[in-house]
Specification:
Layout: E1 4-7, E2 12-16, H1 21-28, H2 45-51, H3 58-61, E3 68-74, E4 80-84, H4 89-95, E5 104-111, E6 117-126, H5 130-143, E7 148-156, E8 171-179, H6 186-195, E9 201-202, E10 205-208, H7 209-214, E11 225-233, H8 238-247, E12 257-262, H9 266-269, E13 284-292, H10 298-312, H11 333-337, H12 341-351
Helix pairs in contact: 5-8, 8-10
């Protein structure tokens, strides 16, 4: 189920549930159109959209679920329903942020936007600049144009051509930025990132939007072992920055990191109860993830994520983005869905009273 049908006149796309974001962007790119998705091309559109959908374009265009126009849903009792603002509107509300709790979505219809090539790239700074970079970022992003998406991260330098060979394997703090406005404005829009500190390595410039979605695929190959934690963040305080400085540089593998995604701008313009995604008042969505190959390294990798998560929790919100949470986060479900949780429980009772769909951030009926 990997079909994508683009309607360039209506500026919509209909995509099957087996479609990845790589599939989706490959189909929409020739028309110069896109919709907000994630940052890894092998991510499925289904899971990302049902949980909300945070990515490079969220500040300007909203979440993936904010751009969902309709969905085909098979419910627990075997009914086929169309969910939209005009049909089964309560189900449509629930699947936009409520995860896979309410049925199997077999097809998604999205609103598209005119985005084709972007000005994008990662910029690596010495790890000693971490506090400086995070303080800069929290002030910069407040007033940045909404066409600018980007996030700070920790990154062990992989063996890539744009990184000096003698720095491969070193830990850096990075900013990964994406300018979705006019390409000729890209260098000027990236100037603040070069002014804040010396960039030690970068790969920056105009690039097709689908290509940036594939840029980090090599860090998360199929079958890699993973462990995740996430929290919403309202303010990146000095105390929180100190925790990041102490924990982020200890990331155990090249695929282990902390990302801090901005969810302001267009995300804030949707009312908190307009969709099931219930944390519209937050400014960032933080993820701490470790990924590794060796089963013998399970304990060390899980411990780094848990220790980092526990240390930053007092400086974060109780709830986290459901797409960033792991199987041992069931005790956080109500906080993760926020103020919309009770309505989600009522709709779970209506559409899945026996909790057939429970392998998720589970809403108990």
């Amino acid at each position: 189920m990997r079909t994508v049908r683009v309607d360039p006149v209506r500026m919509t796309a209909r995509a099957d549930a087996g479609v990845t974001w790589g599939d989706f962007y490959t189909a929409t790119y020739p028309f110069g159109l896109t919709t907000p998705g994630g940052i890894i091309s092998t991510t499925g559109i289904a899971g990302l959209t049902l949980g909300g959908g945070i990515g490079y374009l969220s500040r300007g265009l909203g979440l993936s679920c904010d751009n969902l126009l309709s969905a085909d849903v098979v419910t627990a009792d075997g009914r086929f329903l169309i969910a939209s603002e005009n049909e089964n509107a309560d189900l449509f509300w629930a699947i936009r942020g409520g995860g896979g709790n309410f049925g199997v979505v077999t097809s998604f219809e999205y609103r598209l936007h005119p985005v084709k090539d972007v000005y994008w790239g990662p910029m690596f700074y010495e790890i000693e600049e971490t506090a400086n970079i995070l303080r800069f970022y929290r002030e910069y992003i407040k007033n940045a144009p909404e066409q600018m998406g980007g996030f700070p991260a920790f990154q062990i330098a992989p063996p890539l051509p744009f990184i000096p060979e003698n720095r491969h394997g070193d830990m850096f703090v990075a900013i990964v930025a994406c300018w979705a406005g006019p390409l000729d404005q890209g260098p000027a829009q990236f100037k603040p990132f070069h002014d804040v500190a010396e960039v030690k390595a970068e790969m920056v410039g105009p690039i097709p939007f689908p290509a940036i979605n594939m840029a980090f695929d090599g860090l998360f190959p199929k079958g890699i072992r993973q462990y995740w934690k996430g929290n919403y963040v309202r303010a990146l305080t000095d105390e929180a920055i100190a925790v990041h400085v102490a924990n982020g540089p200890k990331a155990p593998t090249v695929s282990s990191t902390m990302h801090l995604y901005p969810i302001d701008g267009a995300c804030h313009r949707m009312a908190s109860d307009a969709t099931a995604f219930g944390h519209r008042e937050e400014n960032f969505s933080m993820v701490i993830v470790s990924a590794w190959d060796d089963p013998g390294a399970d304990e060390a990798n899980v411990k780094w994520v848990r220790d980092y998560s526990a240390a930053i929790a007092p400086h974060s919100q109780e709830g986290g983005y459901v797409n960033f949470l792991d199987g041992d986060d069931q005790n956080r479900v109500a906080a993760n869905y926020g103020a919309n949780y009770q309505r989600l429980v009522e709709l779970k009772r209506k559409y899945d009273p026996d909790n057939v769909f429970h392998v998720n951030q589970n809403i108990l009926p």
